Amino acid sequence: MPAISRHQRLFDGLAIGASAVCLVHCLVLPALLVLLPTLGAWLAFPESFHVGALAFAVPTSAFALAGGYRRHRRARPVLIALLGLALLALGALAAPDEVVETVLTVPGAIALAIGHALNWRLARHA
């Protein structure tokens, strides 16, 4: 089989990076906002940020996971990543408040990153 494609590495890398940015946004930013109230107005993100992040995550993940699956034929990374995307979607689109949103999106971002990391590893070794 040919080596893992540049596109596959790019999409998996983008997806993992986006998950990391999401985690930083969900965990570090609220901590900074609590510790340094004056930064609140300066660093605040609009609610549309979460919908935009989801709109980026879905197609990026779809390309990366489909390419990896074609190579390694294992469903586990896809299922883990889909769980992550589902949690992110619930957090971005259906959470009634910020606490519930964070409770959904943090494990969602972690699951998505794990799914992509596993996809990347399996595709590289296929």
Protein traits:
about 130 residues, about 85% helix
Overview of this protein structure:
Keywords: Membrane, Transmembrane, Transmembrane helix. This is MerC domain-containing protein. The chain crosses the membrane at residues 12-36, 48-66, 78-96, 102-120. Pfam families: MerC. It comes from Pelagerythrobacter marensis. By secondary structure, the protein is mainly alpha-helical. It has one domain (6-125). Helix content is 83%, strand content 0%. The chain contains five helices and no strands. It has helices at 6-35, 40-43, 48-72, 76-93, 98-125. The longest helix has 30 residues, at 6-35. It is elongated, with a radius of gyration of 16 Å. 33% of the residues are buried. The model has no long low-confidence stretch (mean pLDDT 83).
Summed up, the domain count is: 1
Q: Uncertain regions: pLDDT < 50 for 5+ in a row?
A: none
Query: What oligomeric state is this?
Result: single chain
Number of strands: 0
**Outline type:** elongated
| Separate helix tally | 5
What structural class do the secondary elements suggest?
A: mainly alpha
Return the average pLDDT rounded to an integer: 83
Major beta-sheet overview: none
Rg for CA atoms: 16 Å
Report how far the terminal alpha carbons are from each other.
8 Å
Estimate the helix proportion, in percent. over 70%
State which percent range the strand residues make up. under 5%
Helix/strand order, N-terminal first: HHHHH
Summarize the structure.
This is MerC domain-containing protein. This protein is mostly helical.
